[in-house]
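hey m, so remember when u said the tokens were messed up on ur end? i reran from scratch. heres the input so u can diff it against urs
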Amino acid sequence: MPELPEVETIRSALAPGLTGRKLERVEILDPRLTRPEPPELVAAALERERVSAVRRRGKYLVVVFESGRHLLVHLRMTGNVLHPAPDGHENDLHVRAVVRLDDGSDVVYHDVRRFGTWELLEPGELKEYFAVRRLGPEPLGRAFTAASLGGALEGRRAPVKAALLDQRAAAGVGNIYADEALWYARVHPLTPAGELDEEQVAALRDGIRKALRLGIRRQGASVRNYRGADGLRGRMQDEFRVYGRDGEPCERCGTAIVKTRAGGRGTWYCPSCQPGD
């Protein structure tokens, strides 16, 4: 967490204020953010860069500079990017970096648990970076078809929930939206990924897209620390069908939601709508 909808919500809010702006001053306050690169060297390299676009790839924020460099921001568990900076951020111990733009405004990177990362790539390095990490297709893009999803799951013995989390089948899907997508598709989360038939794969592809689109419309899920770039909570948590709802009735059939584990992660499903073997 944050997953694709949360990162996309942040990206869409940041883009208007950052595009075309120059980074006048960069302070990286936590050395863990850029390790193994020294934070002072990364900060110095970022200063005077001008933003040409703010994009997203899976769960990564991708800041594109006119020089051809890219800054990849991965929020991990509790990271967030805020612009304009909230009042009192100078005294917030969870602020890990501050960027002053040429319009005088500040961009703040906030991270309670300190798992987030910043990586500065030189021109031409982006494609290889994502290829090495075997990042799958964007699930809201044209390349994400039932055939592509079926190909990514074919022959895999891992539970389908775990297969969705490793990012090879669809970039940006995490614990929340995998559970929601499997509920929409009526697929049990512990079903071996390679055993899904064509109809189930097609339903899962549609379920993934439906869950993610709803998450974006609701501006993400604020179940823990997540806030949008404006500091406001998302509303997707009010739309959960199964995630975090163990013991509550399924909205489709009334059966109590059950919690299990898949790939080491808490997993919620409806035993009636998503029957296993």
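this time it looks ok to me. Residues 146-269 form a domain with the Helicase, Ruva Protein; domain 3 fold (CATH 1.10.8.50). if urs says something different then somethings off w ur setup not the seq
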